[in-house]
Amino acid sequence: MLVVTNKISTHSVIAVFNNLVRCFQWKLRLFTINHVSARTVKKMYPAGGNTMAGPFWSNGPAPGAFYNFPGNSATAGAMQAPRSDTPGEFGTQRSYYPVTTGTSVVGLMFKDGVIIAADKLISYGSLARFHDVDRVYRINDKTVLGVGGDFADFQYIKRHIDQKVIDDQCLDDKNEMKPRSFYNWLTRVMYNRRSDFQPLYLDLVIGGMQDGEPFLGHVNLRGRSYTSNVVATGYGTHLALPLLREYSENPEAYQNLGQPQANDLMKRVMEVLWYRDCRSDPKYSQAVCTASGVQVDADCFVAQNWDLAHTIKGY
Question: Which of 69, 127, 198, 287 is a Cys-bridge partner for 144, taking CB atoms 3.0 to 4.6 Å apart?
């Protein structure tokens, strides 16, 4: 009995050993197959991108990797936020000079109101890019606005101006924004943007009727403001003001100036600006504000006279 038991035990040990050998052989085969498959996959799908696959998988990630979207690193986590600043030595930078600009705006007071005129050209640098663009606007029945400088900045601030006009209409309390209030508001807006180092590159001429009296003022990109009988921006500061010096230096001279004479003076000023300012245009718009309301004429033309051109030599 003892001998039989020993034989049974010996056969059991041999069977277990054979099973362990078979398992080890299967595991060795599986390891070899997986190792060869991984090497094959790396050859077919390199880490830098898939260059051997068809168009459907072109520039795709290797199996188990992630897509490399623009702005993210291939090895970065999925929650990494893209950069929002402009790379450079000094970090984020913004425009420090105007791009699409309008030239001179001229304003003149007369005894019954105010007249503001500006040509209709928007220049892209020295290129006469956008023609027939109005730069004189009616704000309400008491206020008009002339714009010089960067036109994109004006488009930005125009939305806020329109909203103020809508708010006045919604209140329906018979009170409209007066030119001096509008002038003061623009002064605060321009100075606030200048203080934030984000100025609006604008020269604004505000005119209208303030309690039955004509009003004319100017605000620049730094928030500096003043009121006068005559206001000019851009090249008009050098060319228009000398023609209107009689009315700019004498505070009471405008009281003897009627609307027809003011129109004639403005035509002469716009003609000189057209001759001498290379950023100007013969077509201009003009707004007249009186106690009866605002009239805007957007189809004014300079009466050109080039008879003396043949006497100019050297060009």
Answer: 287
